[in-house]
Amino acid sequence: TKIGKGSGWDEFNRRISEFKTNFEKAMDDDFNTAKAIGDIHKFVSYLNSELDRKDQPRINLLGSGVEVVEKLLGVLGIDLAKILDSDIITEAEELCKQRDEARKNKDFKKADEIRDKLKEMGYEIKDTPQGTILKPKTKD
Q: Where would you find this protein in the cell (predicted)?
């Protein structure tokens, strides 16, 4: 299924198609889970690189990409929702909203304190013209 229109979306749709094809080939290859998980990792890395682009926020890509990853993890019997601790995510999202409000009110000390708390919780924050992007820190 194609998502969106335009050159950015065309590339994204090509990547999704390639990812799904590689995943299916891995499953057809005697249920090669190591390769399938490797393909998932590569696709997630691609999604992260798209989010990091400063010239063009790609928030919609993340949502669409996560749906694809979640579906294919389900094929492997992995329930992404159960893996993610919803209480921590809810708390992080609430802190992100509080930080946005503090920034809006020019209370930068409070905004910095909240940013530091989110970092301690394992999240990165990216401020964009379209709003704050909150994502789990990746290990380098």
A: Cytoplasm
**Distance (Å, rounded) from C-alpha 80 to C-alpha 69?**
9
Mean pLDDT in residue range 124-140: 76
| Cα separations in angstroms, 43 against 18, 38, 120, 121 | 10, 9, 26, 24
Instruction: Output the pLDDT for position 121.
Output: 85
**Burial status of residue 86 (CB atoms within 10 A of its CB: 0-12, 13-18, 19 or more):** exposed
pLDDT value at position 12? Answer: 82
For residue 48, pLDDT beyond 90:
no
What Rg do the C-alpha atoms of the chain give, in angstroms?
Answer: 17
Q: What is the mean pLDDT of residues 42-69?
A: 75
**Residue 127, helix vs strand vs coil:** strand
- Full set of structural domains in the chain with CATH: 7-82 (1.20.120), 84-136 (no CATH)
